[in-house]
Amino acid sequence: MDTIPVLHVIHAFSDNSMNRITGQIVQRLRPQGFDFHIGAVVYEEPLQGYFRDLGAQVIEFSQEGDGPLRSRVREYIQRHGVRLVHSHSARTAIIAGLALGPGGRGRHIYTKHLLLSPGDRRNGWVYWALDRLSLYLPGHVVPVSKVMGERLKRMPGLRRSRIVPIQNGIDTERFFAPGERDATRAELGLPADAVVIGFAGRIELMKRLDLLLDAFARLRPQFPALRLLLVGRGSELETLQAQAARLNISDGVTWAGFRTDIPRLLAAMDIYAQPSSNEGLSLSILEAMAAGKAIVTTDVGGAREIIHDRATGLIVPPEDAPALESALRWVLDEGGARITSLGEAARRFVNAEFSAAGMVEAYGRLYRACLAQAGR
To answer: Could you say which architecture CATH assigns to the domain 172-353?
Structure first.
């Protein structure tokens, strides 16, 4: 049986949730006749072996050939007879769009994980402009939440037929590792009887971890066993560490740095808090729900598509430190009862509604529709 070559253009072979979604697509659609190629535009090695083990061909465009990246991608598409290109970020969407040219737009799918706002990062207007430009190059844009899909459909010049929302899904069993709780806490120096609020992700401005530090500082006098576990790296790390020192809470905050063993880290947490000012459909929250954690998050992006307030977690307004503190206090006030009930409800919900199988099935339908249209 002839296979259909599909090229995923990703930022780098780093171990992150977006690349794991690509891995799920490769694993589940490859037996259905797709031949996957995974190309990165920035050199980084960690997940190369992961994709190779799934049967994908791996290419580092930053290390391959001469000339601009768009020319290297174009040459690869032509040499391997690639029939469909799937990009995953503004930069890769622009590179793929330029590589395919105007005539190849119908063969280009772009998964939109986050719709940027100017305040998301320093020099945000530049990134915002490139982010908006990237939306007009592919044939189909795939927002990862329904609310993002509605926002995109209202943008000038974007035909509604080009917007195909597909909610994120995860391998839910991978993140449920309660047996790792004690060992991970011992490794990190967290007391076995501590109540741990955690976060795992990029330490960047839009995550608003400064609000979480403020809330933690106000809660700690009432809950002396409380600890904060922050997992990740990013441009705001030193600023936040200085804030923790000013608040006199450094002894209660564990900075775990960049880690790839996220299921183990989630096992060490009791409450997962994400006070972001902007999100798409947060994979980090889905992973924490699959791990059975009580969730406190902000009302941004697709939060209400995955959190039923005070049932599968708590939702608070963004940029509101007192509301974040109040929500965390509500979860903590009943001892472990609310933590347990919220975590169990979250796990049941994400297992039923946000599996990787359902997400990949939707991508398979979109792939076939795009190929059929290109054939016509």
So the answer is: 3-Layer(aba) Sandwich (3.40)
